[in-house]
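Tokens for F-box protein. Go.
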Amino acid sequence: MAKLYAIMEAVADRVEMHKNIGEQRNNWNSLLLTSVNAITLAAATIAGIAATTASMGAPLVALKLSSTLMYLAATGMMLIMNKIQPSQLAEEQRNAARLFKQLHGQIQTTVKIGTPIMADVKEFMDKVLALDKAYPLPLLGAMLEKFPSTVEPAVWWPQQPKRQGKVLNGRINRNGWNGKLEEEMREIVGVLKRKDKADYLRLGEKALKINKVLAISGPLLTGLAAVGSAFVGSPSHGSWAVMLGCVAGALASVVNTFEHGGQVGMVFEMYRSNAGFFSLMEESIESNLKERDIERRDNGELFEMKVALQLGRSLSQLKDLTASSSRNGEAMEEATINMPKLRTTTVSLPKLPTRVVEEFDFRSGYIATQIDKHSNSPININFSTRNDTNVADPIVMAKLYAIMEAVADRVEMHKNIGEQRNNWNSLLLTSINTITLTAATMAGIAATTASIGAPVLALKFSSTLMYLAATGMMLIMNKIQPSQLAEEQRNAARLFKQLHGQIQTTIKFGTPTVANVKEFMDKVLALDKAYPLPLLGAMLDKFPSTVEPAVWWPQQPQRQEKGLSGRTNMNGWNGKLEEEMREIVGVLKRKDKADYLRLGGKALKINKLLAISGPLLTGLAAVGSAFVGSPSHGSWAAVLGCVAGALASVVNTFEHGGQVGMVFEMYRSNAGFFSLMEESIESNLTERDVERRENGELFEMKVALQLGRSLSQLKDLTASSSRKGEAVEEFASKLF
């Protein structure tokens, strides 16, 4: 036990180490991207000014030298950035921190509900060392290869020993396993290999190719721009030199923004990690299937539930998948994971072996009987007697711990994804604004210069290219709304953390039942559906036709309400409390929820207007800058080229700097909070069996806490509402 606690302390420390290192490397990405872009665009602008100036001698030399030096510095910094890929380094550390935290939870579970042995110590030691190897902390000499020749899944777990499989007869049911369950697991492994893992490796290959092209292009362009700016003003090389000095520099900043602002290295690491997740699932399933001693396998019922949780499916959906797979074979189109592309997490399968169940039997007072070998059920764990009727079924308790571990891991997943998407918002906003304003500056210089020919053409061409690039990036940003994506993930992390606390409370103070397992499974799947991790194909609509409250809870069954007499007091409920709850529901509907939906509608309209205006303005600015200096279109072209670009940066700042998408999601989520309160109150009121309701006194206190009120303030609210009816002015919530 002391050894396990020592390992647990070391693992907790590694979580913090990797978090700190990840933050450092994320800072490298944001700070270097912003600085390199600023230097590159300033160098391009200076090269353009040098080409159009009438001065000779020292002023021209100073401009050329400044531009060349900045380009050379940018080239060096880009080479370093592209070599180490700081966004990928940060993603590696985020993954490591999450996986070490997951391992910490597994050790805690073993300590709490198992009887640890030396084999556990060795297992966890091996897992720690495997993670250390997969995600090294040092940079020099130990950094993972950022541009491998082939894309392989990430591997962060110890090698499983090779064993000969033993096929069970369909009638045999031991330790929750039978032939039917084994066949189900084999089908899942087949689909994982054919679809999920193969798809992420294919996407990883694409991301790697794109990153290689960008990593070569950026420094190459700044190097060419440095050569060009050095020869600006030269009688023999003036025309091509100014084109290189301006255009190559402008393109380099665009390439750098795509690579490091778009965090392509992070995306590649995410795909590689996801492929590793499916490889681990395959190995874990195959390891159980190949274990000849059935009693040494993970309990079959528990293992099936873990697999379902990790694939974001219910048990019935898991069975549907395997049935579909066995019918369709290789032609099967559906992936195992119940969400489309861009699943961004990696989850290990924590083991809760049979001895844990035996330990539960001992602690709970169960006396196990012989297993019915002729049962047709895939799970058959019989217990003849139980000494304490208030103690939970050990399998139920083990399932709750498994759900709790999965929920804790989802908290970390959503935190990591939220950080990635928040980075997109800040990095792309800064880079696009810098590019747009530089393009406007170049258009203005081109419009005011007395020069003609190559210098003006270079400035116009650079400005137009930058405007077109900004238009494309704005369209992508406005489509995905990264600030809103980040807010969704923050909400998901908070709600999963809340669910984790609810499970802990149930374990500590309740007597968990199968109904609790189903309830928490349903809540996990409802949250998975409400806040999807994928981006492509599963992203929530950012511009819905109508504003609806967010829904992240399972549907409540509809029941007929039964009122209580005012004199009755059962399970903390009476007629007065019921009336109080009805009044609260009325106020929530009329005031709080309605107000947040109204505000959400306004935020959505503003966001739609800004999302259209930004790319439209940069598009018009691109047209204007292309015609700057034209005898027939010079005046309006100069106005468009400068003013539209300047306005576009203002619009972009309002939209993404002001995080209007985040504000809309916040209002939608708040409306959902009040919808959940309404449903929760109505669900209790419509439960005819008062003893099955939540205790009335406890429920009243919870409602008061959720609304940020004391119990006396809650009663004052309902009294005021009942007196004034529809005209009540006060909001129910003092919290929001």
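Residues 483-560+579-727 form one domain.
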